[in-house]
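Encode chain A's predicted structure.
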Amino acid sequence: MNLNLTLIIEVLSFLLFVYIFTKYIYRPISTILEKRAKMVKEKIESAEQMEQNAREKLTNIEKRLANLEDEISDIRAKAIKEAVEIKEEIIANAKQEAERIIVRAQERAELESRKVYNQLRDEIMELALQLVEIILKREVKKEDHYNYIKEKVQELKL
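Encoded structure for chain A:
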């Protein structure tokens, strides 16, 4: 009888332990772990969304680059056409004046080309900074890295 009473007390103690453990330890820990898993999942989804946005921006910039190359070709073609027309017109008046106008037209075409190139380079640098920000998950100051990226672009030109 003593053995049965001890067994009943041990079983009841164990059940009380399981109840207390479940209520005060397991459920709070389980809740915390579920919240943490949800937070990690949300961060992963956010990162995936940011990556998708960056890819879309990159695609848009690549399309714009293709369009800009066509525009550069058109600008050069128009500038050459203008230069030829001006040259023919001025040759009738004076050779010296024709050479001066051709040089000016070529400089203008070169200036437009540089302007378009600089705009494109700035956009690419900004996209690169955005990608670096996404990768590093911290703020990257444009002023701090602009010179570094500019140097690397210059190296690539060489």
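Residues 2-157 form one domain.
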